Amino acid sequence: MKKLTVWGLLLLSLAAACTKDPGPENPVEPKKYALKELAQMTLREKVGQLFNVRVESLVPGASGSVTGGSEALTDFFRKYPCGGVTLFAANITYPYQTTVFTEYLHGLDNYPLICVDEEGGRVARIGRNGNFPVTRVGTMASVGATGDPQKAREAGSTIGEYLCRYGFDMDLAPVSDVNTNPNNVVIGDRAFGSSPELVGSMVEAFMGGLKQQKVEGCLKHFPGHGDTSTDSHYGYAESLKTWEELSGCEMIPFRAGISAGAKMIMTAHVCLPNVTGSSTPSTLSPMVLTDILRGRLGYKGVIITDSMEMGAITQQYTNEEATLLALEAGVDILLTPQDYPKAFDAVMKAVEDKRISVQMIDERVSRILALKKELLLSRGLLKQ
Question: Please, what sign has the CA dihedral across residues 282, 284, 286, 291?
């Protein structure tokens, strides 16, 4: 499988790109450029773009956490290419290791997007690692308590600066949930607060801070995880709100983020029985993702799932079934599937069986490639 020459430009140092002025507005149009790239890709390369995986999924038989590149990883990637990789705390040990590792991953075919959960507070893979000389950012609840969106912008800029420095493309943050349920066991101080208007202003500002540092953010968890009393990491979670109630609360921060130009939104595995009339998790619901997020909210960016390893999915669906249902619901990227090769093969077979069309895949992949192109343009790494 031959690398596309345009991706060879990405062997340049991303660390330098983080401080580089990209100069005047670049005439390259990301969507058109993405379509050109799409036309050169094989079906397997396209299918791979639909997945963002744990790096351990690319090293079959790995006995522990993977912290660097290897021949085994490169060889496996050729067979099962992916569009992105999410690094977790165990993959990030110290600055030099992280920079070398992200440069290696970026050098794989079609520039995998490297993501990390760096919210600040208790969810910070780098910020909570004492080996990294970075400014520690507190909880988003403490930022929200100031009532000053500029504090959220500063938090996003601080996090974005060091993420770009160490080679990350996307921060799976900010949490855009409104923390209205006192019995919530999963969101809490990860949210900016309990006022939807406050959360909306903070989300918009945080995203702006990240973008200032040439890192993209991700609004999560759509359609809202703040009014649940159970944790979708471990099993079924639901919100009993009606659409009218959601519109007056949970949707406000997401609308603010979308208006501010959000490029990625993460789904929640939360069920909305009083909206959809079923116990289907939102990640697998065409009504939630296609009718509401794409239709009513007018969102045109990339939709990524929350981790497909979470109990709310794995306790009800097989790995392969969940993969296909998510794509059919409107998802663009599946995050950390339980078994990546089997999920990949399930999509290939679904295309062969005509359950999923190549046209559907092309539509999803074109959005993903456009996101990559826009990110690279912002860093001055892609020229006409």
Answer: positive
Q: pLDDT tens digits, residue range 305-360?
A: 999 999 999 999 999 999 999 999 999 999 999 999 999 999 999 999 999 999 99
pTM above 0.90, yes or no: yes
Q: Is the peptide bond before 174 cis (omega within 30 degrees of 0)?
A: yes
Name the residue among 363, 244, 354, 210 with its Cα closest to residue 300.
363
CA–CA gap between residue 307 and residue 254 (Å, rounded): 20
The amino acid that residue 234 corresponds to is Y
Are 202 and 144 in contact by the 8 Å Cβ rule? The answer is yes
Residue type for position 202: M
Give the Å distances, CA to CA, from 154 to 143, 202, 208, 251. Answer: 10, 11, 9, 24
Residues linked to residue 364 through DSSP beta bridges, in sequence order? none
Taking each helix axis from N to C end, the angle separating 340-352 and 358-378, rounded to the nearest 10 degrees, works out to 130
Cβ 254 vs Cβ 303: under 8 Å: no
Residue 221 burial (CB < 10 Å; 0-12/13-18/19+)?
A: buried
- Among 157, 153, 125, 119, residue whose Cα is nearest residue 138: 119
DSSP 184-216: -SSSGGGSS-S-HHHHHHHHHHHHHHHHHTT-B
Q: Which of 41, 57, 58 is nearest to 7 (CA)?
A: 41
Helix (H, G, I), strand (E, B) or coil at 236: coil
Instruction: State the catalytic residues.
Output: 233, 306
Give the pairing of strands 113-116 and 170-171: parallel
Q: What tens digit of pLDDT does each residue of 41-76 get? A: 999 999 999 999 999 999 988 888 999 999 999 999
The CA distances from residue 120 to 85, 89, 134, 171, 304, in Å, are 20, 14, 12, 11, 21
